[in-house]
């Protein structure tokens, strides 16, 4: 190892990067499967979800009736506790400070069911309806270094509910494996002051949790839920469900990707598989480098092997020696990998994924230690088993006479190099493709004009009208419209649409008559809403083209459907527009007129003037109209930031992996070229003496490796085309096509990296004195 220090460093560095990638991906997957494990009774806690049949397909939904929890508590013996969990958007006031805040409501047993640690206060805090519980972060945000306990906070909702709560508990910092948490928490019974019906089968809550006496009772409880299906459907015939089912607390985030209105965020299995495969590829490429180096330098160790055999060493001992050397190299690489994970890889990955907080504590995680041990053994066997078996098979007499040479090492090393370049090509193509797709999403037509739109939400009808009147007077505002909902910001607004015997889930967006004109929705059939039309106000809806296609209609205008137990006529069809996450396909959507007194969202179209001037103007009027509420205005383009961030995360991951694989490939290629040139030193010296130019020498060295790249492209790029197209289809509803340009660019990148790597070595040999190479001849 010492004699070939540079190559040893390359091997250690390559394997360390592979191990570091595997550690980071292991931490990510381990984090996902450890969600909510800190709750003492996690195995006995279940969330009650339900199944709906839409277009003859089952759909999993999270919301549940408010009346279900108390019914289960009273009627099902195996149920120990029930907790409903819901959230509201409110304005919280402390002193002169105002904040928009999401507040959660939960039943009194919340802290008895869940093991969220409390920094101050006790688990019975929610028995007091006037109590409010703050998270650690909120206590600092509102009170700084002051004592939070006993402080009073005023909570306002929609300008109607106004109540003062006393801080009676402060939560400790939440464990990083919590799939859900809260900023502020109050008793669920407060909902009755907001017009909620506690025992209603029509009122929906975000989640219903039950704790069973024993996890094994889950099957029996699931069977008991069937009677509540009948009760629900009798009361809600317009939105029937097929079944209630239980989802264990530790599985909630894992199943979030396939559940509508999911309670917590989650990662799809595809993402876990892709990350696991990418990390394995990086490590496998480093192992290929190690194998190539071992095989390429094996001839230099033949005399050592021959002497050892003559002195009595058998084949098994030689194999153990080679694998032991590989294990030692892997141990050095592990030490470097641990430093890389802590200093570089984990911080970079955390910045890329953005929404998970991963922590690296090796000594506290025996499963990680076991994983690393298996990884070391695997690396030693993969990179050292074949070379050790083959090299140790030769006869000692032949070795010492110099008759033995590894004749097929060229074929094997080049085969491994083809694999290595092929894997690099795949990751480079993926990086180029995801980068282009991220740019495509940025430029994608969202189906309406989202530019220079400012949005402001008012709490009451009166404040909306005053702000609207102020907006139309400002010269830079060229148009305004009101609505109850805003495109891109509808939350849990899915309802069932019925047409004859068919049903489908649709997104309901309530708007005013001028809203479609202001945002320039594209009408492809029928008409828009008519202002001051009594028929449109009570009977008309406009649908998107996805709904027409989903129902199998040739045209939509004139069809009568039922929505929320009322009959409507379709008067127009608009071109599909994006109203949700870009990764999801545009689903059926319905636009319906809301009453003028329901307008709360003010949308303003700005001309080419300064947006800041409009914002300052509206803020001044806001403070006159609603001085007790914080001013928050946003641009319509901002509603798609989550989609852009997601595509950016995917692009960053593939780019990062592509850079690693290119670096490992370059290091492996550099080592092989150095060994090749070392074997051809005298040949190159003779050629230089006979007048060969640097170009001739470069061509001599280059042609073999350029052939390897070409072969790798022929073998791997078609496979990359198939796999990347499937990946895009799986992860993106809308994406660019996979074209030949991506793979031409990939070949270009690989050629540039190869030529630069080779040129470094060729320059050294081309500028050296040929006399030194021929001195011993």
UniProtKB/TrEMBL annotation:
List, for all copies, the residue spans of the domain called ABC3 transporter permease C-terminal.
277-395, 657-770
* MacB-like periplasmic core domain segment(s): 9-227, 425-578
Membrane topology term reads: Multi-pass membrane protein
Give the UniProt entry's GO cellular component terms.
plasma membrane
Task: Please provide the record's keywords in A-Z order.
Answer: Cell membrane, Membrane, Transmembrane, Transmembrane helix
Query: Can you say where in the cell this protein is located?
Result: Cell membrane
Per the record, a Pfam family? MacB_PCD
- Membrane-traversing stretches: 7-33, 271-296, 317-348, 368-390, 411-433, 653-678, 705-724, 736-763
From which domain of life does this come?
Answer: Bacteria
Q: Spell out the molecular function terms from Gene Ontology.
A: transmembrane transporter activity
Q: Per the similarity annotation, which family is this?
A: Belongs to the ABC-4 integral membrane protein family.
PANTHER family in the record: ABC TRANSPORTER PERMEASE YTRF, MEMBRANE COMPONENT OF TRANSPORTER-RELATED
What is the name of the protein in this document?
Answer: FtsX-like permease family protein
């Amino acid at each position: 190892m010492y004699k070939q220090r540079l190559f040893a460093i390359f091997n250690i560095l390559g394997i360390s990067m592979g191990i570091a990638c595997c550690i980071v991906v292991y931490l990510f997957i381990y984090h996902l499967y450890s969600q909510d494990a800190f709750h003492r009774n996690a195995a006995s806690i279940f969330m009650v979800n339900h199944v709906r049949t839409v277009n003859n397909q089952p759909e999993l939904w999270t919301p549940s009736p408010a009346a279900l929890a108390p019914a289960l508590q009273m009627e099902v013996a195996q149920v120990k506790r029930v907790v409903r969990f819901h959230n509201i958007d409110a304005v919280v006031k402390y002193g002169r400070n105002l904040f928009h805040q999401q507040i959660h409501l939960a039943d009194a047993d919340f802290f008895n069911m869940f093991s969220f640690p409390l920094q101050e206060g006790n688990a019975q805090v929610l028995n007091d309806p006037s109590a409010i519980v703050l998270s650690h972060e909120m206590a600092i945000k509102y009170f700084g270094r002051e004592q939070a306990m006993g402080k009073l906070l005023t909570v306002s909702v929609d300008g109607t509910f106004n109540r003062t709560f006393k801080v009676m508990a402060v939560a400790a910092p939440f464990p990083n494996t919590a799939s859900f948490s809260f900023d502020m928490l109050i008793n669920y019974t407060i909902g009755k002051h907001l017009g909620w019906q506690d025992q209603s089968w029509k009122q929906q809550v975000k989640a219903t949790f039950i704790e069973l006496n024993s996890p094994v009772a889950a099957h029996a409880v699931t069977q008991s839920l069937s009677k509540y299906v009948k009760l629900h459907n009798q009361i809600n015939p317009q939105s029937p469900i097929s079944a209630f089912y239980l989802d264990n607390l530790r599985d909630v985030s894992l199943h979030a990707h396939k559940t509508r209105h999911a309670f917590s965020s989650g990662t799809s299995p595809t993402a876990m598989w892709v990350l696991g495969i990418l990390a394995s590829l990086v490590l496998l490429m480093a192992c290929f480098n190690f194998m190539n180096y071992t095989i390429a330098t094996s001839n230099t160790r033949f005399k050592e092997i021959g002497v050892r055999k003559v002195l009595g060493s058998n084949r098994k001992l030689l194999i153990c020696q080679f694998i032991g050397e590989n294990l030692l190299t892997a141990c050095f690489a592990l030490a470097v990998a641990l430093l890389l994970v802590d200093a570089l890889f984990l911080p970079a990955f955390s910045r890329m994924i953005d929404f998970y907080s991963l922590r690296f504590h090796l000594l506290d995680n025996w499963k990680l230690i076991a994983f690393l041990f298996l990884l070391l053994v695997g690396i030693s066997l993969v990179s050292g088993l074949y070379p050790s078996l083959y090299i140790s098979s030769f006869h000692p007499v032949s070795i010492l006479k110099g008759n033995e040479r590894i004749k097929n090492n060229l074929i094997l090393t080049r085969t491994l190099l083809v694999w290595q370049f092929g894997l690099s090509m795949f990751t480079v193509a993926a990086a180029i493709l995801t980068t282009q797709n991220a740019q495509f999403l940025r430029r994608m037509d969202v189906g309406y004009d989202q530019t220079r739109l400012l949005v402001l939400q008012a709490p009451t009808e009166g404040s909306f009208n005053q702000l609207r009147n102020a907006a139309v007077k400002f010269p830079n505002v060229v148009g305004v419209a009101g609505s109850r909902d805003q495109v891109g910001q509808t939350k849990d607004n899915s309802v069932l649409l019925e047409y004859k015997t068919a049903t489908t889930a649709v997104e309901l967006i309530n708007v005013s008559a001028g809203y479609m004109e202001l945002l320039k929705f594209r009408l492809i059939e029928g008409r828009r809403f008519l202002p001051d039309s009594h028929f449109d106000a009570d009977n008309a809806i406009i649908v998107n083209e996805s709904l027409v296609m989903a129902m199998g209609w040739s045209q939509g205008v004139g069809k009568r459907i039922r929505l929320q137990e009322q009959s409507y006529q379709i008067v127009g069809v608009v071109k599909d527009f994006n109203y949700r996450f870009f990764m999801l396909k545009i689903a059926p959507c319905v636009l319906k007129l809301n009453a003028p007194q329901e307008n709360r969202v003010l949308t303003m179209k700005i001309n080419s003037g300064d947006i800041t001037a409009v914002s300052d103007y509206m803020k001044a009027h806001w403070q006159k109209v609603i001085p007790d509420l914080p001013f928050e205005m946003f641009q319509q383009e901002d509603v798609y930031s989550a989609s852009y961030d997601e595509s950016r995360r995917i692009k960053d991951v593939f780019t990062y992996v592509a850079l690693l694989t290119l670096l490992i490939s370059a290091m492996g290629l550099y080592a092989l070229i150095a060994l090749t040139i070392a074997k051809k030193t005298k040949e190159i010296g003779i050629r230089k003496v006979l007048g060969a130019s640097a170009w001739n020498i470069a061509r001599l060295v280059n042609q073999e490796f350029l052939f390897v790249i070409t072969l790798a492209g022929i073998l791997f790029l078609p496979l990359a085309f198939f796999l990347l197209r499937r990946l895009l289809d799986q992860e993106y509803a809308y994406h660019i096509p996979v074209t030949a340009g991506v793979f031409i660019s990939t070949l270009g990148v690989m050629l540039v990296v190869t030529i630069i790597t080779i040129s470094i070595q060729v320059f050294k040999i081309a500028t050296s004195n040929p006399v030194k190479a021929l001195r011993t001849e």
